[in-house]
Amino acid sequence: MDKQNVAxxxxxxxxxxxxxxxxxxxxxxxxxxxxxxxxxxPWRIWLGAAYLTANALFTKGYQIYNIFLIVSTAGxxxxxxxxxxxxxxxxxxxxxxxxxYHGAVAMSIMGVLACGLLWVLAPVLALKDAALTQVFRTxxxxxxxxxxLSVMRGFFxxxxxxxxxxLSQFIEQVARVIYMLLMTxxxxxxxxxxxxxxxxxxxxxxxxxxxxxxLLLVLHFFRQRGRFAELAASSAGNVHISTKRILLEIAQQxxxxxxxxxATNLYYIIDQYTFDPMMxxxxxxxxxxxxxxxxxxxxxxxxxxxxxxxxxxxxxxTALPLLAAAxxxxxxxxxxxxxxxxxxxxxxVMIPSALGMAAVSQPLYVxxxxxxxxxxxxxxxxxxxxxxxxxxxxxxxxxxxxFHNRLAMKIMVVGVLVKFIFQWPxxxxxxxxxxxxxxxxxxxxxxxxxxxxxxxxxxxxxxQTLRRLIGITTFSVVMAVVVRALVWALSLxxxxxxxxxxxxxxxxxxxxGVAIYAYAVLKTRLADLIIGRRIGSIRQKLHIG
Length: 545
Prior knowledge:
By secondary structure, this protein is an all-alpha fold. The chain contains 21 helices and no strands.
């Protein structure tokens, strides 16, 4: 009996850490993503008729910038948090601190190199487009700071301290949004009305945000330096590793994070460089029209679904150090339980979020982007893509947390190849919907292979997870159907093309959807099984038997 209690304790501890960490990271990610979507409303109004063209320019700039960002940060948040968690589990806090300091210096140098490289290559990457070149060069500046910012986030995550990362992420986004809206208003309303200048200042806002996010983390680090010094002083001291070896470890662990972190961006890069030529093989469309179509799925829809995907990113960030520590301790059951918990927590949050977004796609799209029948349809399809993106992100982090880096990269490559193979035929068959469908196929291939490998290697509770997934999906579908019917009924008495009336529709429909799903998972005790017994207090307060 005592042995069972001792064995159960780490599982409960890991689950509590995951829930607490996920709560912080989810709050930070969601608030950041919501801010990153809300700015669209005034931004669209001030840009006026140039909005879709400007958004396509903005999106193309960010797709390439994200690749540079991932390479320049070298997967540091994940690699640093994973290695620090590993050394902390061995009571080698001093080695973890050395890894952090040397990593910070290396990544600062990497930031300078990345900034210079993007600046020099901007005309080539923009295919000699002067406007896109200008945007790329404004995006070179944040590369100076973000590598160091990433190192510090990875350090705190390695200690299972998710609050600093979440708060810095939020502050970074607030500063960014304030600057970009201020400059867009100044240029488009008061100034020269040049939308290219407005987009360039909107992208430069990433540098302003990085300054504020970094300052917050630096302040937090200095406030806690005494505690970190005490932990380092109490280290076992059994690990003696050179500076060269520390940097090599960072590089070895970081490279897979570069590849995996770039995976979702690679899907969009394929779209950016193939959508126009592949569309022109079968359809007669002007360059301006192609730019607007591209903005519908890669710009507009992507901004909104990334709010949902950020839930998965938050869970992945939390799971990584926990899995690395469990792997270091070599406890097979703990690893299997962690994988099970991660998957079930993902499903109970992501499935209803994605289906709910699809159900309210019409008023949601109108509030942010104005009424566009094609845009609404693209948004609805993209809502389902969020589940694929999210699950891929979580599973990739699980494999990396368990030190299966090569396996994760091989599986990612398979998915990208599937996407590339089906890109042209699906564009020919489904027009603007083709790229999203091809991405779903590629992600589905990778997800299937990852799940199979994890089950083969660690024997997580697949049948239990499947049973609970069926319940979650059933409740989510019922909720989505009711919400969709409610939106349809409201559209009979309210103007669906009006932004304000669409906002009213959301204000009515969303609480109904949340109430239906929450009641179902609480009434059936499904939430208790996945989230834990503490959820029972919520059921009691709501008087749900």
